[in-house]
C-alpha cells in the first residue's frame, strides 16, 4: 500500500511526519496480513 503525499516516518507518533489516519490504516492492514498468513 502506498499513501500518496505521506512522508517517511508517518507511523512514528513522536515525529512531526506522523499521520494518524494513515498509521492506523497501515497497522490494521499489517495485522490482517499477518493473520491471513499464519503469523499472528
Compute the number of helices.
Answer: 1
Order of helices and strands: H
> What's the end-to-end separation, in Å?
20 Å
Share of helix among residues? 40-55%
Which class best fits the helix and strand makeup? Answer: mainly alpha
- Percent range for β-strand residues: under 5%
On the 0 to 100 scale, the average pLDDT is 95
Question: Based on CA inertia axes, which overall geometry fits?
Answer: elongated
| Rg calculated over all Cα atoms | 11 Å
Residue runs with pLDDT of under 50 for 5 or more positions: none
Structure summary, number of beta strands: 0
* Main sheet overview: none
Keywords for this structure?
1 helix
How is this fold's topology laid out?
Elements (H helix, E strand, L loop, with lengths): L19 H17 L4
Structure description:
Helices cover 42% and strands 0% of the residues. The longest helix has 17 residues, at 20-36. With 40 residues, it is an all-alpha fold. It has 1 helix and no strands.
Q: What's a concise summary of this model?
A:
The chain is mostly helical and 40 residues long. 42% of the residues lie in helices and 0% in strands.
Amino acid at each position: 500500500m502506498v499513501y500518496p503525499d505521506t512522508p517517511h516516518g508517518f507511523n512514528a507518533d513522536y515525529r512531526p511526519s506522523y499521520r494518524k489516519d494513515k498509521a492506523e490504516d497501515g497497522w490494521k492492514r499489517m495485522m490482517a496480513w499477518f493473520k491471513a498468513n499464519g503469523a499472528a
